[in-house]
Amino acid sequence: MNTEKKWYVVRTAGGKEKKAKEYMEKEIEAHGLNNLVGQVLIPTEKYYQIKNGKRVSAERIFFPGYILIEANLTGELEHIIRNVTFVAGFLSESATGKPGDKKAVPLRDDEVNRILGRVDELVDAEGETETPFVVGESVKIIDGPFNGFNGNIEEIMDDKRKLGVMVKIFGRKTLVELNFAQVTKE
Asked: Are the C-beta atoms of residues 127 and 45 closer than 8 Å to each other?
């Protein structure tokens, strides 16, 4: 019997990836099939966003509606996983061309390496920052020499994580360069 584990993609109900993973692991445990399963993985990525003037880290699933499972997919295990709550089935293809005759297809090694490599890369990387601002938006300056002033965003410099904000100082409009963390939305 082939005991080599391969990676498969399991489709889930949207937004229910964590619950589906939890239920899947419980079912595998209950049927004593842990020896057939390497790991169940929800690929996520870490990113940073600015909330209330502070930089906070958050996590998002980068394949919403999908879970990866490393397993030796026997008929029994495949049947158990297909019947787990919130699981819609495997990414599959028809073995004979007839509807209903679907066979789970393992991921190619290069696909697995790319996905797992991306996960590792994102764990190592600091993460990207979503720009919570748009040009023309009104902001209040909460830090620095212009603390307490209000202004409008004229430009966004994502690479430097800075904003060009037009502020009225002594009755004249002046363009001031500020960090994302120095302003908050009005």
From this structure: yes
